[in-house]
Specification:
It is a single chain. This protein is of the alpha/beta class and 355 residues long. It folds into 2 domains: 2-227 and 305-345, TIM Barrel; 232-303, no CATH class. It has helices at residues 18-26, 44-52, 70-83, 98-103, 112-128, 175-184, 198-211, 234-251, 259-266, 270-281, 285-290, 294-299, 306-317, 331-341, and strands at 2-8, 31-34, 57-60, 63-64, 89-94, 135-136, 141-142, 168-172, 187-190, 221-222, 225-230, 301-304, 323-327. Strands 1, 2, 3, 4, 5, 8, 9, 10, 11, 12 and 13 form an 11-stranded parallel β-sheet that branches. The two termini are 27 Å apart.
Length: 355
Amino acid sequence: MKLGLMLGYSGANLKLPVELVQRAEALGFDSVWTAEAYGSDATTPLAYLAAVTKRIRLGTSIMQLAGRTPAMAAMQAATIDALAGGHRFIAGLGVSGPQIVEGWYGQPWGRPYWRMRDYVAIMRKVFSRAAPVAHDGREISLPYRGEGALGIGKPLKSILHMNPEIPIWLGTGNESSVRLTAEIADGWFPLSFVPGMMDLYRPWLEEGFRRAGGKRWADFEIHPLVSLVVTDDVKSALARMKPGVALYVGGMGHREKNFHNDMMVRRGYPEAAAKIQELYLAGRAQEAIAAVPDDYCDEAALVGPPQRIRARYPAWESSGATGLILQCRQAAGLELMAELAGSRDRPAADPAPPA
Protein backbone atom coordinates (compact mmCIF):
# COMPACT_ATOMS: atom_id res chain seq x y z
CA MET A 1 0.00 0.00 0.00
CA LYS A 2 1.53 3.29 -1.13
CA LEU A 3 1.14 6.33 1.07
CA GLY A 4 0.63 9.94 0.01
CA LEU A 5 0.42 13.15 2.03
CA MET A 6 -2.30 15.66 1.14
CA LEU A 7 -1.43 19.32 1.65
CA GLY A 8 -4.59 20.64 0.00
CA TYR A 9 -5.01 24.35 -0.72
CA SER A 10 -4.39 27.27 1.59
CA GLY A 11 -6.76 29.15 3.78
CA ALA A 12 -6.26 32.88 4.19
CA ASN A 13 -2.49 32.38 4.46
CA LEU A 14 -0.21 30.01 2.58
CA LYS A 15 2.45 28.14 4.53
CA LEU A 16 3.83 24.84 3.32
CA PRO A 17 4.65 22.25 6.02
CA VAL A 18 8.07 21.54 4.52
CA GLU A 19 9.43 19.64 7.51
CA LEU A 20 6.38 17.34 7.52
CA VAL A 21 6.83 16.64 3.81
CA GLN A 22 10.50 15.87 4.34
CA ARG A 23 9.61 13.55 7.23
CA ALA A 24 7.09 11.76 5.01
CA GLU A 25 9.76 11.30 2.36
CA ALA A 26 12.20 9.92 4.94
CA LEU A 27 9.52 7.45 6.06
CA GLY A 28 9.17 6.12 2.52
CA PHE A 29 5.97 7.93 1.54
CA ASP A 30 5.31 7.63 -2.18
CA SER A 31 3.77 11.04 -2.91
CA VAL A 32 2.77 14.50 -1.74
CA TRP A 33 -0.31 16.27 -3.13
CA THR A 34 -1.62 19.80 -3.53
CA ALA A 35 -5.05 21.10 -4.49
CA GLU A 36 -6.79 24.27 -5.63
CA ALA A 37 -10.25 25.80 -5.34
CA TYR A 38 -10.35 29.60 -5.66
CA GLY A 39 -7.28 30.74 -3.75
CA SER A 40 -3.82 29.17 -3.90
CA ASP A 41 -3.06 27.17 -7.04
CA ALA A 42 -1.99 23.52 -7.14
CA THR A 43 1.19 23.70 -9.20
CA THR A 44 3.33 26.48 -7.70
CA PRO A 45 3.80 24.80 -4.26
CA LEU A 46 5.09 21.67 -5.98
CA ALA A 47 7.82 23.66 -7.73
CA TYR A 48 8.96 24.79 -4.28
CA LEU A 49 8.77 21.27 -2.85
CA ALA A 50 10.77 19.92 -5.78
CA ALA A 51 13.72 21.92 -4.46
CA VAL A 52 13.53 20.66 -0.87
CA THR A 53 12.84 16.95 -1.54
CA LYS A 54 14.69 14.25 -3.43
CA ARG A 55 12.52 11.25 -4.22
CA ILE A 56 8.87 11.70 -3.28
CA ARG A 57 6.44 12.04 -6.19
CA LEU A 58 4.79 15.45 -6.58
CA GLY A 59 1.13 15.45 -7.58
CA THR A 60 -1.86 17.71 -8.04
CA SER A 61 -5.16 16.54 -6.64
CA ILE A 62 -6.45 18.27 -8.54
CA MET A 63 -5.65 20.87 -11.22
CA GLN A 64 -9.00 22.31 -12.30
CA LEU A 65 -9.47 21.97 -16.06
CA ALA A 66 -11.05 25.41 -16.41
CA GLY A 67 -8.06 27.07 -14.73
CA ARG A 68 -5.63 26.47 -17.59
CA THR A 69 -5.61 25.17 -21.13
CA PRO A 70 -4.42 21.60 -21.66
CA ALA A 71 -1.22 22.88 -23.27
CA MET A 72 -0.48 25.01 -20.19
CA ALA A 73 -1.27 22.09 -17.86
CA ALA A 74 1.23 20.00 -19.82
CA MET A 75 3.81 22.82 -19.70
CA GLN A 76 3.45 23.20 -15.94
CA ALA A 77 3.67 19.44 -15.40
CA ALA A 78 6.74 19.10 -17.61
CA THR A 79 8.47 22.12 -16.05
CA ILE A 80 8.05 20.91 -12.47
CA ASP A 81 9.00 17.36 -13.44
CA ALA A 82 12.21 18.68 -15.00
CA LEU A 83 13.01 20.84 -11.97
CA ALA A 84 12.46 17.78 -9.74
CA GLY A 85 14.93 15.67 -11.70
CA GLY A 86 12.45 13.79 -13.86
CA HIS A 87 9.84 11.08 -13.36
CA ARG A 88 8.41 12.63 -10.18
CA PHE A 89 5.38 14.65 -11.28
CA ILE A 90 1.80 13.33 -11.44
CA ALA A 91 -0.72 15.50 -13.30
CA GLY A 92 -3.96 15.02 -11.39
CA LEU A 93 -6.94 16.63 -13.11
CA GLY A 94 -10.60 17.27 -12.39
CA VAL A 95 -13.46 19.37 -13.71
CA SER A 96 -14.42 20.98 -10.37
CA GLY A 97 -18.08 22.13 -10.38
CA PRO A 98 -20.16 24.53 -12.46
CA GLN A 99 -20.22 27.24 -9.80
CA ILE A 100 -16.42 27.49 -9.84
CA VAL A 101 -16.01 26.84 -13.57
CA GLU A 102 -18.46 29.57 -14.57
CA GLY A 103 -18.30 31.81 -11.49
CA TRP A 104 -14.55 31.92 -10.85
CA TYR A 105 -12.92 31.05 -14.17
CA GLY A 106 -15.58 32.51 -16.48
CA GLN A 107 -15.63 29.35 -18.58
CA PRO A 108 -18.71 27.50 -19.84
CA TRP A 109 -19.56 24.26 -18.04
CA GLY A 110 -20.07 22.67 -21.47
CA ARG A 111 -19.77 18.89 -21.70
CA PRO A 112 -17.31 17.82 -18.99
CA TYR A 113 -16.97 14.24 -20.26
CA TRP A 114 -15.77 15.36 -23.69
CA ARG A 115 -13.72 18.23 -22.29
CA MET A 116 -11.82 15.79 -20.09
CA ARG A 117 -11.26 13.38 -22.98
CA ASP A 118 -9.97 16.18 -25.24
CA TYR A 119 -7.85 17.66 -22.44
CA VAL A 120 -6.02 14.42 -21.66
CA ALA A 121 -5.48 13.65 -25.35
CA ILE A 122 -3.88 17.06 -25.93
CA MET A 123 -1.65 16.76 -22.86
CA ARG A 124 -0.38 13.37 -24.03
CA LYS A 125 0.40 14.81 -27.47
CA VAL A 126 2.37 17.63 -25.85
CA PHE A 127 4.31 15.16 -23.67
CA SER A 128 5.16 12.84 -26.56
CA ARG A 129 6.51 15.46 -29.00
CA ALA A 130 5.78 12.95 -31.76
CA ALA A 131 4.44 15.73 -34.00
CA PRO A 132 3.20 19.33 -33.80
CA VAL A 133 0.09 19.24 -31.65
CA ALA A 134 -3.21 19.27 -33.50
CA HIS A 135 -6.51 18.03 -32.11
CA ASP A 136 -10.02 18.07 -33.52
CA GLY A 137 -12.16 17.53 -30.43
CA ARG A 138 -15.78 17.89 -29.43
CA GLU A 139 -14.96 20.47 -26.75
CA ILE A 140 -11.37 21.56 -27.44
CA SER A 141 -9.56 21.87 -30.76
CA LEU A 142 -6.06 22.96 -31.69
CA PRO A 143 -5.43 25.17 -33.57
CA TYR A 144 -8.40 27.23 -32.37
CA ARG A 145 -10.76 28.20 -35.18
CA GLY A 146 -13.82 29.30 -33.23
CA GLU A 147 -15.38 32.69 -32.67
CA GLY A 148 -12.86 35.51 -32.75
CA ALA A 149 -10.05 33.47 -34.36
CA LEU A 150 -7.79 35.09 -36.95
CA GLY A 151 -7.41 31.70 -38.62
CA ILE A 152 -3.60 31.82 -38.66
CA GLY A 153 -2.87 29.49 -35.73
CA LYS A 154 -0.69 26.50 -36.51
CA PRO A 155 0.25 23.26 -34.72
CA LEU A 156 3.37 23.58 -32.57
CA LYS A 157 5.75 21.16 -30.87
CA SER A 158 7.05 21.74 -27.35
CA ILE A 159 10.50 23.35 -27.19
CA LEU A 160 11.15 21.49 -23.93
CA HIS A 161 12.09 17.83 -24.37
CA MET A 162 10.14 16.31 -21.51
CA ASN A 163 9.36 12.96 -19.96
CA PRO A 164 6.85 11.58 -22.51
CA GLU A 165 5.19 9.39 -19.88
CA ILE A 166 4.21 11.90 -17.18
CA PRO A 167 1.27 10.14 -15.52
CA ILE A 168 -2.20 11.66 -15.69
CA TRP A 169 -4.73 10.83 -12.98
CA LEU A 170 -8.37 11.91 -12.83
CA GLY A 171 -10.71 12.73 -9.97
CA THR A 172 -14.13 11.34 -10.94
CA GLY A 173 -17.20 9.75 -9.38
CA ASN A 174 -20.12 8.98 -11.72
CA GLU A 175 -20.33 5.92 -13.94
CA SER A 176 -19.42 7.48 -17.28
CA SER A 177 -16.50 9.48 -15.89
CA VAL A 178 -15.10 6.53 -13.92
CA ARG A 179 -15.16 4.42 -17.09
CA LEU A 180 -13.42 7.25 -18.91
CA THR A 181 -10.79 7.45 -16.17
CA ALA A 182 -9.99 3.76 -16.48
CA GLU A 183 -9.78 4.12 -20.26
CA ILE A 184 -7.55 7.19 -20.64
CA ALA A 185 -5.80 7.81 -17.30
CA ASP A 186 -2.99 6.20 -15.33
CA GLY A 187 -4.61 6.66 -11.94
CA TRP A 188 -7.81 7.60 -10.15
CA PHE A 189 -8.83 9.73 -7.18
CA PRO A 190 -12.19 8.12 -6.28
CA LEU A 191 -14.54 10.68 -4.75
CA SER A 192 -15.75 9.83 -1.25
CA PHE A 193 -14.35 6.29 -1.40
CA VAL A 194 -14.61 3.99 1.64
CA PRO A 195 -13.93 0.28 2.10
CA GLY A 196 -16.69 -1.80 0.52
CA MET A 197 -17.31 0.50 -2.46
CA MET A 198 -15.08 -1.31 -4.94
CA ASP A 199 -17.87 -3.76 -5.73
CA LEU A 200 -19.76 -0.82 -7.26
CA TYR A 201 -16.78 0.59 -9.16
CA ARG A 202 -15.11 -2.60 -10.37
CA PRO A 203 -17.34 -3.21 -13.44
CA TRP A 204 -17.08 0.45 -14.46
CA LEU A 205 -13.30 0.30 -14.26
CA GLU A 206 -13.08 -3.00 -16.09
CA GLU A 207 -15.21 -1.61 -18.92
CA GLY A 208 -12.79 1.31 -19.18
CA PHE A 209 -9.84 -1.08 -19.28
CA ARG A 210 -11.56 -3.01 -22.06
CA ARG A 211 -12.13 0.18 -24.08
CA ALA A 212 -8.44 1.01 -23.68
CA GLY A 213 -7.54 -2.21 -25.44
CA GLY A 214 -6.82 -4.56 -22.59
CA LYS A 215 -5.33 -2.34 -19.88
CA ARG A 216 -4.63 -4.34 -16.72
CA TRP A 217 -5.31 -3.58 -13.07
CA ALA A 218 -1.53 -3.56 -12.58
CA ASP A 219 -1.34 -0.59 -14.98
CA PHE A 220 -3.64 1.57 -12.85
CA GLU A 221 -3.33 3.31 -9.48
CA ILE A 222 -6.25 4.06 -7.14
CA HIS A 223 -5.61 6.48 -4.26
CA PRO A 224 -8.56 7.63 -2.14
CA LEU A 225 -8.33 10.49 0.34
CA VAL A 226 -8.34 9.45 4.02
CA SER A 227 -8.33 11.70 7.08
CA LEU A 228 -5.81 10.54 9.69
CA VAL A 229 -5.83 11.77 13.30
CA VAL A 230 -4.07 10.09 16.21
CA THR A 231 -6.05 11.04 19.31
CA ASP A 232 -7.74 9.66 22.38
CA ASP A 233 -10.79 11.89 21.72
CA VAL A 234 -12.44 10.35 18.67
CA LYS A 235 -15.64 12.38 18.94
CA SER A 236 -13.82 15.72 18.94
CA ALA A 237 -11.69 14.66 15.98
CA LEU A 238 -14.79 13.72 13.99
CA ALA A 239 -16.42 17.02 14.96
CA ARG A 240 -13.48 18.91 13.43
CA MET A 241 -14.13 17.16 10.10
CA LYS A 242 -17.77 18.16 9.93
CA PRO A 243 -17.42 21.82 8.81
CA GLY A 244 -15.56 20.66 5.68
CA VAL A 245 -18.14 17.97 4.96
CA ALA A 246 -21.00 20.44 5.41
CA LEU A 247 -19.32 22.98 3.12
CA TYR A 248 -18.87 20.47 0.29
CA VAL A 249 -22.10 18.49 0.70
CA GLY A 250 -24.20 21.55 1.43
CA GLY A 251 -22.63 24.48 -0.34
CA MET A 252 -19.96 23.45 -2.85
CA GLY A 253 -22.27 23.34 -5.80
CA HIS A 254 -25.83 24.13 -6.87
CA ARG A 255 -28.90 22.54 -5.33
CA GLU A 256 -29.43 20.62 -8.57
CA LYS A 257 -25.76 19.77 -9.26
CA ASN A 258 -23.53 18.96 -6.32
CA PHE A 259 -21.26 15.95 -6.80
CA HIS A 260 -20.29 15.77 -3.13
CA ASN A 261 -23.94 15.63 -2.14
CA ASP A 262 -24.43 12.83 -4.67
CA MET A 263 -21.56 10.90 -3.09
CA MET A 264 -23.14 11.14 0.37
CA VAL A 265 -26.33 9.72 -1.09
CA ARG A 266 -24.39 6.92 -2.79
CA ARG A 267 -22.77 5.99 0.50
CA GLY A 268 -26.17 5.48 2.09
CA TYR A 269 -26.96 8.83 3.73
CA PRO A 270 -29.70 10.38 1.56
CA GLU A 271 -31.63 11.97 4.42
CA ALA A 272 -28.53 13.56 5.90
CA ALA A 273 -27.42 14.82 2.47
CA ALA A 274 -30.77 16.51 1.86
CA LYS A 275 -30.88 18.07 5.33
CA ILE A 276 -27.31 19.38 5.20
CA GLN A 277 -27.88 20.98 1.81
CA GLU A 278 -31.19 22.55 2.88
CA LEU A 279 -29.66 24.05 6.01
CA TYR A 280 -26.47 25.23 4.35
CA LEU A 281 -28.20 26.93 1.45
CA ALA A 282 -30.54 28.61 3.91
CA GLY A 283 -27.56 30.22 5.62
CA ARG A 284 -27.75 27.96 8.69
CA ALA A 285 -24.21 26.63 8.47
CA GLN A 286 -23.85 25.63 12.12
CA GLU A 287 -26.99 23.52 11.95
CA ALA A 288 -25.74 21.95 8.73
CA ILE A 289 -22.47 21.05 10.46
CA ALA A 290 -24.38 19.49 13.36
CA ALA A 291 -26.39 17.38 10.89
CA VAL A 292 -23.28 15.60 9.53
CA PRO A 293 -23.36 12.03 10.93
CA ASP A 294 -20.38 10.83 12.95
CA ASP A 295 -20.39 7.54 11.05
CA TYR A 296 -20.09 9.30 7.71
CA CYS A 297 -16.86 10.97 8.83
CA ASP A 298 -15.54 7.91 10.60
CA GLU A 299 -15.98 5.63 7.58
CA ALA A 300 -13.66 7.79 5.47
CA ALA A 301 -11.03 8.25 8.16
CA LEU A 302 -8.50 6.59 10.40
CA VAL A 303 -9.13 8.32 13.71
CA GLY A 304 -8.38 7.42 17.31
CA PRO A 305 -5.59 6.03 19.45
CA PRO A 306 -3.01 3.86 17.67
CA GLN A 307 -4.75 0.61 18.56
CA ARG A 308 -8.01 1.78 16.95
CA ILE A 309 -6.21 2.87 13.79
CA ARG A 310 -4.34 -0.46 13.67
CA ALA A 311 -7.64 -2.33 13.92
CA ARG A 312 -9.27 -0.29 11.15
CA TYR A 313 -6.37 -0.17 8.71
CA PRO A 314 -6.80 -3.72 7.27
CA ALA A 315 -10.18 -2.74 5.79
CA TRP A 316 -8.42 -0.05 3.76
CA GLU A 317 -5.58 -2.37 2.84
CA SER A 318 -8.07 -4.84 1.32
CA SER A 319 -10.39 -2.19 -0.16
CA GLY A 320 -9.01 -2.39 -3.69
CA ALA A 321 -7.08 0.88 -3.35
CA THR A 322 -3.41 0.76 -4.30
CA GLY A 323 -2.55 3.70 -2.07
CA LEU A 324 -3.96 6.15 0.47
CA ILE A 325 -3.61 9.93 0.36
CA LEU A 326 -3.59 11.01 4.00
CA GLN A 327 -4.90 14.30 5.34
CA CYS A 328 -2.66 14.61 8.37
CA ARG A 329 -0.50 17.19 10.12
CA GLN A 330 0.95 14.89 12.79
CA ALA A 331 4.40 13.38 12.44
CA ALA A 332 3.27 10.62 14.83
CA GLY A 333 0.42 9.78 12.45
CA LEU A 334 2.75 9.54 9.47
CA GLU A 335 5.10 7.29 11.45
CA LEU A 336 2.26 5.00 12.48
CA MET A 337 0.99 4.67 8.92
CA ALA A 338 4.50 4.08 7.58
CA GLU A 339 4.78 1.18 10.01
CA LEU A 340 1.36 -0.24 9.10
CA ALA A 341 1.90 0.07 5.34
CA GLY A 342 5.46 -1.21 5.47
CA SER A 343 6.92 1.88 3.84
CA ARG A 344 9.20 2.54 6.81
CA ASP A 345 11.15 -0.55 5.76
CA ARG A 346 10.84 0.20 2.04
CA PRO A 347 12.43 3.59 1.29
CA ALA A 348 11.28 5.34 -1.86
CA ALA A 349 13.43 4.54 -4.88
CA ASP A 350 15.61 7.13 -6.54
CA PRO A 351 13.81 8.73 -9.47
CA ALA A 352 14.50 7.22 -12.86
CA PRO A 353 16.84 9.19 -15.11
CA PRO A 354 15.15 11.54 -17.60
CA ALA A 355 14.17 9.95 -20.89
